[in-house]
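Progress report, Aim 2. The chain analyzed during this reporting quarter is listed below.
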Amino acid sequence: MWMLSKEVQITEVEGPTTAGTSAIESTAIDISNYDGCAIMTTVATKTDSTNSNIVAVYQSSKATLDNSTETLLKEYTVANNNLTVLLDVFRPREEYGKYIIVRVTRATSTAVGPIYAMRYAGRVKPVDNTNVADNGIYSAALINQEDAS
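Predicted structure tokens for the chain:
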């Protein structure tokens, strides 16, 4: 039986933030031993220009962005209020490093929801997402009784 909650490692890499204009940067996401990583966050206010409220995903050899070791993989300019953005990085190139880092650039005052990383296709299974203390996420497997036997 295939269950998504046992196939992905979900981590909150940045908590929700109140309205502001400073950029938000996630903690580094180690993608070693995973084929992909989907990033998901919600941005409260749409942009009025092309240089604000942008969700960008970088790959880096370091655990922080320093404008020298990272490669921009994708960026998305938020075009709707309360838009949830999902950016999926599949089989990133090893020469760019083992970390994924998310930056949300806010030029207009806006709140940003938590940033989640969903690493998938891991080399080690099963994945356990049930430890709320470690990742801030509660997960439960709900099984159809007919399938449980």
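The two ends are 11 Å apart (CA to CA). The mean pLDDT is 83. These observations will guide the mutagenesis work planned for the next reporting period.
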